[in-house]
Structure formats: structure tokens, C-alpha cells
Prior knowledge:
Layout: H1 2-5, E1 33-36, E2 41-44, E3 57-64, H2 70-79, H3 89-97, E4 107-110, E5 135-137, H4 154-175, H5 179-202, H6 209-214, H7 223-237, E6 242-245, H8 262-286, E7 294-297, E8 302-303, E9 322-323, E10 327-333, E11 340-342, E12 344-345, E13 352-354, E14 357-358, H9 359-366
Amino acid sequence: PRLTKESGQKIPLQTPTTVFNITDKIFASPFRFQKYGECGAEVSELFPQVATCVDDMVIIRSMVADHSEHTAANYFMHSGSGFQGRPSMGAWVTYGLGSESRNLPGFIVLESGLIPPGGLDLFGSGFLPATFQGTLFRKGAQPIADVKPREERVELQEGKLKLLRRLNQGVLDRFGEVSEIEATISNYELAFRMQAEVPDLLQIEGESEVTRKLYGLDDPDTREFGLQCLLARRMVERGVRFVELLPPFRQGLDRWDQHGSLEKGHRINARAVDQPIAALLKDLKSHGLLNQTLVVWGGEFGRTPTAQIPDYGDLSGVGRDHNPYGFTMWLAGGGVKGGTIFGATDEYGYFAVENKVHVHDLHATILHSGRDMRLTDVQGNVIHEILA
């Protein structure tokens, strides 16, 4: 409420330097909010479909991170470190729990045209064996590179793979264990098995018309991310342990990074993902998978409650700067207490002030069981209040 009441005024807080450090004037949200579900969670008009799922969610409104620049913040959210070289969450999970699928990777990343700042290292295995790094599924007719064989006869391909195995094994015998070589051998063998599994995975024609409409595949605005979400459900069904989805890329439009033209950009971005996200949650639930699948949604930081333009008169160009000091993420499904609203920021939405949840705490909570070593540094604590 104070954002609306005091919009255009100087924010009465001692604020840190932001990435661009342009203005300290309060910028009211251009979107309406209303309460949904039995839990009474307030949700923006941008997400009318996601709002119908709030009773299955834990909404954390007091997230805190350590970095305000995209690359370091992305590394931090993925691995708990602002630098390259640490295992990503997907690598942690597959290392600790393995994969339930012999013919698909345990950790898959569904990208949609643009890798976030930080690049492929965001999905790396760090000091864990290289076989636990993420496998990228790209847009287009051939989502996985180098899986489709050039050989027309299977026996020719098998012969080449046997030769490669002997050559790689010779290197291992000479130099000892080399994680990258062992991963290469494993990846060749997995790629051979994936030739039969991946086409079936991608064949969505067998899905009902009701399911296709649920995900918005009949709408050009939602089709791209809807397909990603549907594939994520199909991967979970087939035993893939960890699936990461990246938001759809629109040429000429920042993905949620609205330093300017926030209202226009957010409406376009939200339109593309709202229905597919809700569809994924509802579809997982109808298949009996939501209670054993943890869905985590968020970004590497939040945005400031202050405007990012020097001239506050032109509201059409207003944006917001990066804010790691207080932002929101939500979790749904396996192991969490649905319908929970946890933590709070100050009255302007700048700083987390109640039940702060550091990124290390988020990681510790996600990974709190099934680990035989600590990968979240010593700061992370499990948030027992949000667990069922």
C-alpha cells in the first residue's frame, strides 16, 4: 500500500547502491493484486492462472541473495557460489539421488533460445564427476546435439562406439581416472540409448486435446513455454531426476529484466508463462506426480521498489533496478506445506525483514535429505516451517 500512497516521493530508507543507481523515487506497481485460495495469498493480475494454484505452494517473500549482477547472481542461485566451478543444483541432486531413467540424462535443461548470463557453467558439475552436468535440450528439430547418427546401419555405429571405448579406455589405463574421459564414455553410451528414447519423449501427438489446450499449445503466445512445461512433465514421468526450464526468449525484449518499459515487458513475459506454469502444476497433480516432484520458481534476485529513470514524468518508460535484498520465490509439490506464506519485506518491498531466507537456506531446504556431504557452505539452514 505504501508504494501506491507514496508513489513519486523519495523513499525514506537508507538504500544501497544499485547496478545503475539512477533514482530514489518510489514507483507504484502498475498491476492490481487480489487474494486467492484458502491461504489468501495476494497475487498480481499478471498471473491469473498461477493464482489458482496458491494452495499447493509455499510462497517465500523474504528471499535474500549476495549478488546484484546477473552473472554472479545466476552462479550463486545455481550453485551457492558467485563464481564458476561449483556444482549446480541439478548436479547435486543427480549425484545424490541418481537418475531413474537408464535411457535419458538425469539432469536436463530445456532452453528456449537464450542461455542466461553465466552460460553453460550454470549447469556444470563443478568438482563432481563430469557425467552429472546438465544436458541441454534446444529448440528446433534436433534438440540434442550429436545424438542423431550419420550411419544408416546400427552395426556400423556400434562398431565405432566399441573402437572409441577401447581408445578412451587406453587413455584411462595410461593416465588413471580422468573424470572428463569417463564422462565422455558414459555420454557416448547414453547417446546411443537415447536414439530410441528421445523421439518417443518428444512425440506429443499422443497427448489428448484437453492436455494440449491446458498447456496453451493452441495459442502462439503460450505455445513455446507450454511445450517446455509439457515436456518437463513427460521427462518426470520417465524418471529424469532434475529438469530446469528457462523462460521463452522474445527478440528485442528482455526476459524479466525490465530496467525500462516495465509494464509492457512484464505483461508480455507473464502472458507467455502464466498458463503453462499452472498447467504443469495441475497436470503433475492429476497424474499423481506433484506430491513427489518439487517445483521451484524464481529468479536470481528481485527488483527495487524505486523507479529507474531520471525523469519520473514519463511512466511508460519506467523500470526497476536489481534488488537482492528482498524478493519472492515459490515452491510447490513434494515435501512442502502448501498454502504457506513465509516471510515478509518492509512496507516498500525493499528489504526482507521477517524470516529472512538466504539462498543458502533455500538450497539446504531443497537438499536437506539424501546427502552424504554438505554442498551449501556452512551458512545454509533447513527451513522446517515450510516443510510438510
